[in-house]
Amino acid sequence: LHFILVMFATARRASLILARPTSRSFQTTVRRTFNSQQANRSVKALEVEQSQVLAVHAFRNQQRSGSNYYWLWAAAAGCFFVAPMKIWHAKTANFKQVRQDIEDILDDPDYDDGSFGPVLIRLAWHSSGTYSAFDKNGGSNGANMRHAPEKDHGANAGLDVAREKLESIKKKHPEISYADLYILASIVAIEAMGGPKISFRPGRTDTKDNKLCTPDGRLPDASKGRDHIRAIFYRMGLNDEEMVALIGGGHAIGRCHTDRSGFSGPWTNSPTMFTNDFFVQLLENEWSEKKWDGPTQYEDKSGELMMLPTDLELRDDPIFRKHSEKFAEDEDYFFEVFAKAYEKLVNMGCDDILCPRAV
Predict the structure, then answer these.
(1) Is 88 part of the annotated catalytic residue set?
(2) In this structure, are residues 54 and 214 in contact, taking their beta carbons and an 8 Å threshold?
């Protein structure tokens, strides 16, 4: 608003001393002004271009006094600036402070293994993992997991804990969307637990209802085999190496809960540290089927650690195993692949609306 008022005042002053610009000079000026905004117009360039055409058309047909032409000039110029400002409104949060506030709420000795980090990563993973490259829907944009029925899907059980934990951040920073907050919280958690740095690009928006909720069954089922794994991840547009990295990264931290997934136990001895130990344990430990009343899962000799049926596929499938061995041998390489795959995962379906630069 301040910018528009300044534009009007400047235009009014200029109208007292300058002659009315020709149609050609007006178009030239507008074109130069508009072209200077190229870095900020990638999302809705068509809307801005349409605004430009309408403004030029109105200028040509305006038959009022010279000073009024400057008012029109200012209004048109305001449109060219306001449109990009509206586009980038979701990116005006103080992300440095948001990051710090997220990091401040991660540790809690009374919750699970002492950190909310793993469940925040699961929240973002499940919010993003609904994307379908075939149907062009789902993914992190919209934060549709806030709505029923998606929030009540079996794979999302227990994620209300993560959403509620982030409410204090949302209240303090209302300018950030839930969709961006969910993704940024996971990135902060990964880095805080010793994982790789991951680029974050804001710009996601929130839906107001459940019209864009995806059907149940789009997330991986831990009880299934390699064909299921590939079907789920290929649908998202990911390759074999990326899916192994994302599964292993997601299981490098945290644990399963019987009241959520039905499974029980951690995958590693350091569930709040992001390392390549999942792959080390997977390949070097001995796993046998756990004797209990719950769903099929596997345990090591100590009975302290567990693996899911899908996890053992990363050991037993020849192609998956090749990548698992590489990740177990080289943690830096695992971090590199995981960071790129995770950024790809959380940006699926919304690349064209995100800020072109990471914040």
Answers:
(1) no
(2) no
H helix or E strand, kind and range, residue 215:
none
Structure tokens at 276: 């390549």
Where do the DSSP E strands lie in the chain? Answer: 255-256, 265-266, 288-289, 298-299, 306-307
Give the tens place of pLDDT for each residue, 255-291: 999 999 999 999 999 999 999 999 999 999 999 999 9
Among 73, 125, 267, 287, the one annotated catalytic:
267
For the record, the structure tokens of 280 come out as 């080390």
57 is catalytic: no
Instruction: Tell me the whole-structure pTM to 2 decimals.
Output: 0.76
Determine the residue type at 328: A
Q: Which residue has the tokens 């292993």?
A: 248
**Residue 23 pLDDT:** 40
Q: Which of 125, 126, 153, 323 is catalytic?
A: 126
Residue-wise pLDDT tens digits, 9-27: 544 444 444 344 444 343 3
